[in-house]
Amino acid sequence: MRNTMGLSLTYSLVEQIGQAIVAGAYDNADFPTERELGVKHGAGRTATREAVKMLVAKGLLTGRPRQGTAIEPQAKWNVLDPDVLRWMLERKSTLRHLSQFTEMRLGIEPAAAALAASHANSAGQREIRAAMARLKAADAGFDDPLGAEIALHGAILIATRNPFYVGLQDLVSTALRISIRFASARQERAIALTRHEALVVAILGRQADEASLLMRAMIVDLLALIRCAAAEHHLSIGAPASRQRS
Fold first, then answer.
1. Among 184, 173, 221, 198, which Cα is nearest to 113's?
2. What residue stretches are annotated with the HTH gntR-type domain (predicted)?
């Protein structure tokens, strides 16, 4: 029990300190010492030290001999770490990062949909059907729409039977939690449901090219929504993506 409580405290410290770093709380000040962090958060030396080590592993901090701990430039942050990605997407300037990550999804999920159509075994297809059933139940008010859509995208990655795509589940689901909330406020749920149904039909029907195109179209339209919102805030975040593959 004591070890579990210690881990919980460490993860809580990682969450609080990581969020503060990404939000720029220390941009105009020296980063606190481990002792100062412990006092501020009411944590012991061991938990604080472990939290700092975890943030170093995530690329946010670096420990320099005789110079103490310092914040790394953003270019050195491990942005593929689900925690770092979530902290970046949750901060106020989220539209730029959401756009950039959605652009990366264009290079991952259309290909994953095609692979799922080609490689899914009976178990993979069963998981996709189950996730689609959850999405329909959510549309009727009997399930969580966010969790259901994340489950479907995760099932598609698993159905590729490619360990590198499967390993992207946490990363993609982290960003989806932000992007789905964003899209839900600007897009009718019925339209999203219909498009996911068409995608699932293509995957289960072994129509790899069609599945890829449908997934790409959904992501491109999400990117357009993000860029429209950015324009409303006078942000420049890139050129429009094409629905067609080059």
1. 198
2. 7-74
